[in-house]
Amino acid sequence: MISKLTALQAALRYARRAGGMVVFLMILSHTALGVPPLQLGIQAGNHPVLRVSGPPGVTCAVQWTDDLTSNQWSHLAYCVLTEGQVEFPDTTAGEATRRFYRVAQSPLTNAVIHLSLRRESTSVLLISGPVGAVGQVQWSDDLSIPGRWFHLGFCQLTHSTCEITDPTTNAAIRYYRVVQTPNTNTVLIPSGVFAMGSTLGETNNDEAPAHNLY
User: Which of 128, 136, 146, 155 has its CA 20 to 30 A from that of 34?
Assistant: First the structure.
């Protein structure tokens, strides 16, 4: 846990107008004792691209607000600086007229799931994170439409990594993300065919006859 904030950097500036949206950038970094400050940069556009940099291995949380006077910040993303820097777009901005961003070091107990892409005849997605975590991989073909994310598959990290293949080969462009799902003590059913329902002669009014699910 972070018990003391020893580095606090704040800077506020206008980003250029893009697509009718004015994005404000607030660099606000909190780091633990002895850890150099985190840095947050932005590239304005219809979907601002955020660049977080700092010491390799640091876990941090990026947050946003549209009103600095409210002191209410919304979570945007967790990230681990495996190579000292990471970039990602803010696909939730939509038609927002302004946004302020900040980054703060996060305790290592936060479960962070990574997603990387390997191109072969089809796209192979490598998911890594804490053992036991469950993630849902989603895809989109248009980041300009908020919420346009479609289910691709679930992945339970019985080991530290697992792979999911996107069978689609004719898509012009695709974006991917992984969303951690809470552990509700449920069991994921492997893909395949299984039978359910009641056999003939045993079906009640509220039961379906025996059938196969794929």
Answer: 128
